[in-house]
Write a structure and sequence with these properties.
Layout: E1 10-15, H1 20-31, E2 35-41, E3 65-66, H2 69-73, E4 78-81, H3 85-98, E5 101-104, H4 111-120, E6 125-128, H5 134-149, E7 155-162, H6 172-184, E8 193-194, E9 209-215, E10 221-228, E11 233-240, H7 244-257, E12 263-265, H8 267-270
Parallel strand pairs: 1-2, 1-4, 2-3, 4-5, 5-6, 6-12, 7-9, 8-9
Antiparallel strand pairs: 7-10, 10-11
Helix pairs in contact: 1-7, 3-4, 5-6
The structure holds NADPH dihydro-nicotinamide-adenine-dinucleotide phosphate (NDP) and the ligand O=C(O)C1=N[C@H](C(=O)O)C[C@H](O)C1.
Length: 275
């Protein structure tokens, strides 16, 4: 969208404003022509409360970090939420009540929590995706194609690596990759996933999809899917070197949600990759 001086900016609140992604989002909003930071949330007790959300950039956004959900969300038309599952659900309850549209980047939701999100999507528009980067979503399409063509005779393993502060495993992206592959092969990930191996495991079971997790240092996010056949193997890899791609993808999601009243969407909808 091309914003002109007469086009009102999209009013966005950021949850977890002092977090790794929160700060990337504040920076992306500050740098955008069509969005404005209208509110910023952090947990009660956070030392950042009362400070300007863009202070870490040496800028003044006008949005002071606060912990009162109603106060913050009543100043916004959109919430971008990269926090923790329980926090996201608390925020969603207020967003559904106030008609605020929500971009959710948080990962690690249980099936019951995902069902709660789907229920809130009947009241407001929600975009939920474990990875907002364009590259990862294109990788998911490549995996769909590879999984169909390599339906038999190839063992599938998904390896992901992230920074030492990440609290959920495997990553939401790795799980999504497994889901896309399983679905492309007419199956369900829950019937095929192997999340742990230790000790005398016995030989690899056919048709399983294995997951391996690496945690260390400041790795932003690497994902490799291995299709291991007899006499050859194919590896499809995506590596993130900056969180800016997640923030830019989130702003694309906001612009997409501006055209929706309610319903649940993902990045395939935002990027027109559904077909
Ligand atoms: N979809 C995507 O593209 C991406 C998704 N993610 C996901 O986003 C989430 C956040 O990642 P990251 O920014 O690295 O994490 P951080 O821990 O750096 O930031 C999380 C922020 O949320 C706050 N927070 C923690 N618990 C709650 C709660 N219960 N309610 C409200 N706020 C809370 C934290 O506050 P405090 O510091 O005070 O605890 C912090 O400000 C993770 O689930 C991660 O997997 C990350 C990158 C990309
Ligand atoms: O926690 C992170 O950092 C990331 N989390 C997301 C995930 O769990 O897939 C996306 C990205 O890999 C970074």
């Amino acid at each position: 969208m091309t914003a002109t001086s007469s086009t009102p900016r999209l009013r966005i609140a950021v949850a977890g404003a002092s977090g790794r992604m929160g700060r990337m989002l504040v920076e992306a909003i500050q740098n955008s022509k069509d969005c404005m930071l209208s509110a910023a949330l952090d947990l009660p007790g956070s030392p950042a409360l009362g400070t300007d959300a863009a202070a870490f950039l040496g800028q003044n956004s006008g949005a002071l970090i606060e912990s009162d959900l109603h106060s913050a969300l009543s100043k916004a038309d959109f919430l971008i939420d990269f926090t923790r599952p329980e926090g996201t659900l608390e925020h969603l309850a207020v967003c559904a009540e106030l008609g605020v549209k929500v971009v959710i980047g948080t990962t690690g939701f249980s099936d019951a929590q995902k069902a709660q999100i789907a229920a809130y999507a009947q009241k407001t528009a929600i975009m939920l995706a474990p990875n907002m980067s364009v590259g990862v979503n294109v990788t998911l399409k490549l995996l769909e194609m590879a999984a169909k063509a390599l339906d038999t005779g190839y063992d599938i393993e998904i390896v992901e690596a992230h920074h030492k502060h990440k609290v959920d495993a495997p990553s939401g992206t790795a799980i999504k990759m497994g889901e896309v592959i399983a679905e492309a092969q007419g199956t369900k990930l829950e019937d095929r996933a192997v999340y742990e191996r230790f000790g005398h495991t016995g030989e690899r079971k056919e048709n399983t999809i294995g997951f391996a997790t690496v945690r260390g240092g400041d790795i932003v996010g690497d994902h490799t899917v291995l299709f291991a056949g007899t006499g050859e193997r194919i590896e499809i890899t995506h590596k993130s070197s900056s969180r800016a791609t997640y923030a830019e993808g989130s702003l694309r999601a906001v612009r997409f949600l501006a055209t929706q009243a309610q319903g649940q969407f993902d990045m395939f909808d935002v990027l027109n990759l559904r077909a």
